[in-house]
Design goal:
Residues 18-166 form the DinB-like domain. By secondary structure, the chain is mostly helical. The chain has helices spanning 2-13, 18-22, 32-60, 66-72, 77-81, 105-125, 148-175, and strands spanning 135-138, 144-147. The chain is built from 7 helices and 2 strands.
Length: 176
């Protein structure tokens, strides 16, 4: 549900007029168009990790005790929440996640829609809890080792973080 909500919210931004999409904020930050491209790029790289993790989790299913993993699993929601809060922490993103302006709005929108469907496919593949069977280190906000489901949740929270940024841009555009 969280995932669908976030993807739907991001998708609605593509319907904004060009003035809102291309407004350069006074603080020198990204335009909404650039933020949307950044969301796509971040999703792209996270989905590479999610794909690898899901494959490994499914392989691990043959050798690990899934019931034990499920029984012993606890989710620290508080630890994750700041990922979704714009400005909650400082993090220098890798250069490959910086918007370059090489894709138009329609291309970015279509790619983000495909990314949503990829997430759903991974969740369907790991519908019995298998995503718990593979953990990978996430350096952002010192999350440490997180499982494949948590990576998908991170992807969703990342979008929420930038939805706030886009709303701030839009408010500034309307004031001017």
């Amino acid at each position: 549900m969280h995932l669908k909500l976030r993807f739907d919210e991001v998708d609605r931004w593509f319907e904004k007029d060009k003035e809102i999409l291309n407004h350069q904020p006074a603080n020198g930050g990204w335009t909404v168009q650039q933020v949307l491209e950044h969301i796509y790029l971040t999703n792209f790289y996270l989905l590479i990790l999610i794909e690898k993790g899901s494959k490994k989790a499914m392989r691990n299913y043959l050798n690990l005790d899934l019931n034990s993993e499920i029984k012993n699993y606890s989710f620290d929601k508080e630890k994750f929440e700041e990922v979704g809060e714009h400005g909650a922490f400082e993090w220098i993103r890798p250069e490959h996640m910086e918007p370059k302006g090489e894709l138009n709005s329609t291309e970015i929108r279509n790619l983000i829609i495909l990314q949503y469907h990829q997430c759903l496919e991974y969740l369907e593949l790991m519908k019995n809890g298998e995503g718990l069977l593979c953990k990978t280190t996430m350096t952002v906000s010192e999350l440490g080792k997180i499982n494949v489901y948590e990576y998908i949740y991170f992807l969703s929270l990342h979008s929420r973080r930038h939805l706030t940024q886009m709303k701030n841009n839009e408010s500034e555009t309307i004031k001017n």
